[in-house]
């Protein structure tokens, strides 16, 4: 989470389904109106002003999502991390959701404390900031003091958990319209998003996972985790040690030497390699607001979004990254059928088309692993990723094949890898990468 930038505080959040539905429906209507204006003007003048349409629609959609918090805002945050999925105007606007959503007023925070723990913040702590020091999609953070110690106290927005399912049901057609997504294609993924978001609203679960994952990762060099305090926490309040230092994006733009930035980038890479390939339970929210750098160490601040990989999914998914597999069509094809990216109903022509697309996308994802080290400071790689996403988005034949494919478990893993790539890229670093041990997949 990141410090809010002098935004006007919200004094209320629509909590009831009717009010939230009306807000989201209003956003949908505005999208529709913008579409009519765009196509009408295009037909009359012959000018294609799609960029302007996306700019207006992205701003209006984010404005609604940011006021509602919760599922809509978290969805915006997730979408902003993948430039391959949506037009850049939405990435730029939705990226605000990573850490600069409008904060809630203090009376709403007090109300959450009274309802959850039966006390006001001032009765639990010696001091407690009235204004949030950081804010995002599910909750906001206040700084507190008690007995000479500093705490970061995360307070959940009211009504977030209760409204998630209904919010996502209403957001679905808006996303389909905006990004030309197929209903069947996105249904399994929306269910996966819903499951993870519901977990994120359970701060008691987050506390347990934070302690467990920190313990299982404590041997990693230069990687630190804040202490957590169950006695000052509840289902909607989470208290942890206050951590000094610079958020990762601030650090990336600092005057620290490239050698130091590369060391931090390697620490970040090793942290994810350990969790994905060692624990198969990993921090699935790799945006800069969740990491700080202090005195040469990387601090991991938030385990709200965590994804577990089954052995079967892990085995199948990482077979795809084996160069011996993805470079050989005869070896690749049966794995694509196994993971559901190719379907028995596909015609020979469709299989050829999809094989070409999947082979290219897998090569792009796997490229950092292939040679044992990779220069994430190479902007050409990220341009290639963006160009591939844009090209496949505009491919009308491919859109016709955009039915329900693949495994929804891959959603957060892909998101995590591309988020990690972007974080390491922001540090301009060349890091040592390690392939999984592919022998375990054939044993």
From TrEMBL:
<keyword id="KW-0808">Transferase</keyword>
<dbReference type="InterPro" id="IPR034646">
    <property type="entry name" value="ADCK3_dom"/>
</dbReference>
<dbReference type="InterPro" id="IPR011009">
    <property type="entry name" value="Kinase-like_dom_sf"/>
</dbReference>
<dbReference type="InterPro" id="IPR004147">
    <property type="entry name" value="ABC1_dom"/>
</dbReference>
<dbReference type="GO" id="GO:0016301">
    <property type="term" value="F:kinase activity"/>
</dbReference>
<feature type="domain" description="ABC1 atypical kinase-like">
    <location>
        <begin position="98"/>
        <end position="333"/>
    </location>
</feature>
<protein>
    <submittedName>
        <fullName>Protein kinase UbiB</fullName>
    </submittedName>
</protein>
<keyword id="KW-0418">Kinase</keyword>
<dbReference type="Pfam" id="PF03109">
    <property type="entry name" value="ABC1"/>
</dbReference>
<dbReference type="InterPro" id="IPR051130">
    <property type="entry name" value="Mito_struct-func_regulator"/>
</dbReference>
